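From the methods appendix. Each design record in this collection lists the tokenized structure first, followed by the designed amino acid sequence. Records were kept in a plain field format so they could be parsed without special tools. The example shown here is representative of the layout used throughout.

RECORD:
FOLD TOKENS (271 positions):
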């Protein structure tokens, strides 16, 4: 039985994203997660954003696929009864973080809430995003992240995997002069785009997004899921995480884009 506990509901906020690689050597596999943000208009509408890394989306002019479980007649998750969403060109609903050094982007996924798709999903809300000024946000703090490491997940029930670690660098100091920090955790390819949470004052807060992993004898770098030749033994056990402040910037940019498109009457929204 699925309860309303955050640790269980968060399983329904993520999607496994697959996209053909630019080199045509298979598909990139990563994680995306949903945030529902208000448009703050008179009609009190919202937009649902699927957030991940730029390198997970690969090419907004190319193909993308993700899926969610459908709902049963009584509104519960119908595990393994999958509704897939595919697009050959998603540039019109795609928004990148404007800083080329921030590996963060999203698509407007509001269509998944339409009744004909009958999707069971949960979405994070902006109030869960950390301000990154909390006193308890310190090295050693436990972190939780959820996704599809090395393309591993519950294939029968279409569910991701939850993993744990802790903050390894000084989180309020920009690691290598970028809005990022390091976690001590087994971050494998496929975890790119995973939301990272930390318990702060009795409540889980979204503190960042996994972007890269560290390999032995190498630098911190993004490892696409299709590069299976990089054996598990080469993973160092450290992951690079984009700070939550950058998520807020992306969400605000995407919301503004939706508002502008609504003026032209060509953007799907979640009512």
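DESIGN:
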């Amino acid at each position: 039985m699925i309860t309303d506990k955050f640790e269980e509901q968060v399983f329904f906020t993520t999607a496994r994203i697959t996209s053909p690689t630019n080199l045509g050597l298979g598909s990139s596999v990563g994680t995306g997660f949903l945030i529902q943000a208000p448009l703050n208009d008179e009609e009190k509408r919202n937009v649902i954003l699927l957030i991940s890394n730029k390198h997970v989306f690969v090419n907004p002019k190319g193909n993308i696929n993700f899926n969610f479980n459908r709902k049963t007649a009584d509104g519960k998750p119908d595990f393994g009864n999958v509704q897939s969403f595919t697009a050959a060109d998603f540039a019109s609903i795609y928004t990148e973080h404007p800083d080329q050094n921030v590996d963060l982007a999203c698509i407007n996924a509001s269509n998944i809430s339409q009744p004909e798709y009958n999707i069971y999903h949960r979405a994070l809300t902006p109030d869960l995003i950390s301000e990154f000024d909390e006193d308890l946000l310190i090295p050693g703090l436990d972190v939780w992240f959820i996704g599809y490491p090395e393309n591993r997940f519950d294939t029968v029930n279409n569910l991701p995997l939850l993993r744990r670690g802790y903050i390894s660098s000084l989180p309020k100091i920009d690691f290598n002069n970028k809005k990022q920090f390091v976690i001590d955790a087994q971050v494998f390819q496929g975890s790119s785009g995973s939301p990272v949470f930390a318990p702060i004052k009795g409540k889980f807060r979204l503190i960042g997004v996994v972007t890269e992993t560290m390999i032995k004898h190498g630098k911190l770098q993004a490892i696409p899921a299709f590069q299976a030749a990089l054996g598990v033994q080469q993973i160092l056990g450290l992951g690079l995480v984009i700070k939550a402040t950058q998520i807020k910037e992306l969400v605000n940019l995407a919301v503004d884009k939706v508002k502008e498109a609504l003026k032209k009457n060509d953007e799907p929204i979640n009512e």
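APPENDIX NOTE: The domain at 128-243 is CATH 2.40.10.10 (Thrombin, subunit H).
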